[in-house]
Structures are given as structure tokens and as C-alpha cells.
Amino acid sequence: MSEHKPGSMDIRAQEKTFATFIKMSVWGTVISILILIVMALSNA
């Protein structure tokens, strides 16, 4: 068993996945808020 060296692991794939997750979460939140605003205005 080899000894683990902190900081030696390549995490580019995880960073890209996390960035995409955050981007999609932000877009989902914005779309949800816009839908709620349109629903509130159309009910007025």
C-alpha cells in the first residue's frame, strides 16, 4: 500500500463538476424566481 501524499491528487474533474453544479443551481434558482414573479403578476 502506498503512502498518501496530501495535495498530489488530480481534482480537475471534480472542480469542473462542482462548477457546473453551482452554475445549474444558480440558473434553476433564477428561473424559479422568475416563474414566481410571473405567476404573482398574472394573478394581480
How would you summarize the topology of this molecule?
Elements: H1 12-42
Radius of gyration (Å): 20 Å
Order of helices and strands: H
Through-space gap between termini = 68 Å
- Sheet-strand content, in percent, reads under 5%
Q: Please estimate the helix content.
A: over 70%
Give a nutshell description of this structure.
The protein has 44 residues and is mostly helical.
Question: What does this protein look like?
Answer:
By secondary structure, the protein is mainly α. The protein has one domain (13-44). It is 70% helix and 0% strand. It contains one helix and no strands. The chain has one helix at 12-42. The longest helix is centred in the middle third of the chain and has 31 residues, at 12-42. It is rod-shaped and about 65 Å long. The chain starts with 11 loop residues before the first helix and ends with a helix. The mean pLDDT is 92.
Key features of this structure:
44 residues; mainly alpha; rod-shaped
